[in-house]
Structure prediction request, 415 residues.
Amino acid sequence: MFTLLFIAFLLSDIALRLWLASRQIRHVLQHRAAVPAEFADRIGLHSHQRAADYTVAKMRISMIERVTEAAVLVGFTLLGGLQFLDLQLGYLIDNEMLRQLALIGAVLALLGIIGLPFSIWKKFKLEARFGFNRLTPKLFVLDSLKTLFLSLLFGIPLVASILWIMGNTGPNWVWWAWGIWVGFNLLILWLFPTFIAPLFNKFTPLDNRAMAQRIQALAQRCGFSLSGLFVMDGSRRSAHGNAYFTGFGKARRIVFFDTLLTRLNVDEVEAVLAHELGHFKHKHILKRMIVSFSLALVFAWLLSWLSTQVWFYVQLGVLPQLGRPNDALALVLFFLTIPVFTFWFTPLASWFSRRDEFQADHYAAQQCSADALVSALVKLYDDNAATLTPDPVHSSFYDSHPPAVLRIQNLKQHG
Ligand SMILES: [Zn+2]
Prediction:
């Protein structure tokens, strides 16, 4: 029964994804011939068509990627891939902890290897074709090795402690594992600005005094304590621009991509930051963290129940091993298959995210100039070749940010 349910969800997922992608491609191509009237004075036809082609090219590769992922999932589960790995590792390794870690490691390694051609294609073909890629093959290899090193450094202790908890703390393991998970996430957030991010990028204090003063004044006006303004050499990897907040409490800093600062003037940078401060003022980041930790607890309960149900393994193509712990197997099965069922909640998450974006825009319009934010947004859409004419259905399903036209209309009403 569960096998059929799983197949039904998987097929409908894929059908829905492909349908949405083809809608998006059709819609963008239909509007490729002319710049929408609202942007006609700010964006040239050439830029508009480049954005359309970039969007379509991204959609096409994502369609191939999604179908591949679904095939890999079926390969691991119903076609017996996981069963094979589990048995082989069972013959090879006697130590139960090592055996279980090896199973999780093998699955992650295989997923990584399958994903690699896509990430290479995207960076060196797709992004390069539209002039975004600045990454050299050498830097790509270096980045990948660093990511691998960090994943092992943090991942092995995390997974080992969760496996130990699952095997040794009885039915209350959910609370312990959840505690570890929350602690781990907070640790990463804390280490990110000072330890992790500098492994990949150079951060230098912002040396534009006029801009620094404006931003300090804005932060003060908004009641936001700030310990530093940094510029990151994002241009080493990509021409896409961005800005973000990082760090806790007193160690809070703002990071600008150098690519953003070269394009926006002081008013526009101030407006973009006021938008980010809007997220902070409305406690969006805190709320998201609470939602994510609560969901983690729900999922942990679900996993603790499923891991004791023989049908959960058997119906997904694996026989649990008798007399040996199957916790790693349960973890892998759960994390591989759960997205098939949660995919249907995507529009809900997107809706909440877009609501937050509108709130942050309103806040920015109150603190600075709405016009400056509009002109910053138009530049960013243009520079990032983001489409101005997304398909409404695709957009309401996936988009974390409202479509450009709606966002700008809304700002103009509040400005
Ligand atoms: Zn935002």
In short: The chain has 16 helices and four strands. The two ends are 56 Å apart (CA to CA). Strands lie at 203-205, 228-232, 243-246, 253-257. Residues 275, 279, 357, 360 surround zinc ion (CB under 6 Å).
